[in-house]
User: Fold these one by one.
Assistant:
Number 1:
Amino acid sequence: SLLQLSLQITPPCESEQHYEYSGRCCTKCEPGKYMSARCTGTSDSVCQPCGPNEYMDVWNEEDKCLLHKICDQGKALREVNPGNSTFQRQCACTMGYHWNDDCDCCQRNTICAPGFGAEHPVQQDKDTMCTPCPRGYFSKVASSTDKCKSWTNCTALGMVETVPGTDKSDAVCAERKVPEPSEDGNVTGNSNSTFISSGQVMNFKGDIIVVYLSQNSQEGATAPGPSEENVGSPVQEENPSRCETFAGNTQHYKEQWA
């Protein structure tokens, strides 16, 4: 007799949601659950939900769920997403720290020395990039977040710059000084010098002397024409090169060079 053998070929379990066990293609457990019992010849897999602080994010045949990571503040970690039974909790380094793959930990950000500024924008969980302050900018502090600041513009504030800025210090400004008469009657200016004595005012400008005569200064002096014309009238004289700097009574000066 002819013996006929029939072979039953089971199709392979190609889906990510199935697994092969005891010649059967069985269903895996969905995300958020773990497999408490495998399938048998007559029953399918038995799955249970993950417990508190556990998760499973893929179809699986694991006998337990995975534990959520702990965002330990003592290790400079903070929680950015609490996670759930299907999604892992996410942590990040606290402000001022960045993740280092070499030590698998958070490390303190680099601190930029004075004269250097932190490159902005500062990226979260990335180390600080320090750059030298360009001309016109400064940084006087050691910081992992502060960028270089611009020098104070004294001119724009109506002031004068007394100390120029550097890469480590700001410019120093001061109020503009207004010339004031001194006790001896001299007023200093750009190119003029004024002398007040015995009721007369004399302005020195270059080689020209302008004398303003008052009524008191002309008492006893003879001058043509009505006296009203002489009051307050300027008298302009050249300043001879041989003359010394004017000092003393202006009437005496006038008689000397008349």
Note: The CA atoms of residues 159 and 176 lie 6 Å apart.
Number 2:
Amino acid sequence: MTGSNAAAGRRIRADTLAYAILAQVGLLLLTVFIVILRPSNPEDPAFEGKKTVRLPQRELDHRVAVAEFQQMATSPLQIARLATSALLPDGLPPMPNVPSSEFNPLENAEFLTANTDALLAQAGLNGALDGIKSAVSAAAFFGVEDHGERIVIVVNTSASVMRKARNRGYTIERIQAEVQRLINGLDSGTRFGIVQFSQGVRSFAPYVAPATASNRAAASSWIPSNLRGNPPVVGGQSFFGHEAAFEAAFELQPDVIFLITDGVLNRRTLTSGRVSYPEIPYETFLSTVRRLERNLPGRPRIHIIGFEMKKADAANMRRLASSFGGQLRSL
């Protein structure tokens, strides 16, 4: 009984599988019939449109206006050219009678050229007319070395400084020789200046002069007779002593300054008709130097050669040289 039931179950499953296969075959045949045997459309649809040009209303109005103008406009009238040959006289009128003069602009040539160098220097044209380009030169002064295009030597020739210099073996003649040696060693395109001071100030020239042969010779003649003693104090002088020296030196717009001093910052003072020379604080002196420096195109290097300086004065001069990128040499 059990065996017959199992056989019947197998037949049922086989029949079911057969029916499923027949159904799949039928669906496949139907699909082939629909896809392959279905007639296709004879032609693809076409999309057509008529060409239409539309112009904006403003453009239409413009074209209409242009057409109307062209219809109304006529060719311009032709005007014959006018020509003449007798509007002006052929010749020039006669010259008027001018009184004669015996004035000769060159008869006072010496007067006109007496201060030419100073005027050109004030106008900044002295170097241009020399035809010499600025040049950098190495310079050594009492063992201190530097280089620059505009070198100014500032010397305190007061009696106290010269006495201290002699104590160290440096006479005024030796100092003058050192100044001349520095100038002679410069390139002709390098400019130099000399400032002498005590309470008053005296300069070799109101400008830095190129170190040409003629200017070196002029300095050689000027130094022995002028670089000594005390320059006179003049009326209207704003500064005295070291302050006056830096005022004169900065007017030359140097890039290197060599200063000979003993570091004592005296200032001439007139009180109740009496003249005295008290020392001023270093900060007061430095404030004046800073104020004068504002007119310079750049900060110069300041080197200081000091003779028998006191400890405090040497410290002040070292501060000054250091703040301006220079050095101090004590002798």
Note: Confidence is low (pLDDT under 50) at residues 106-125.
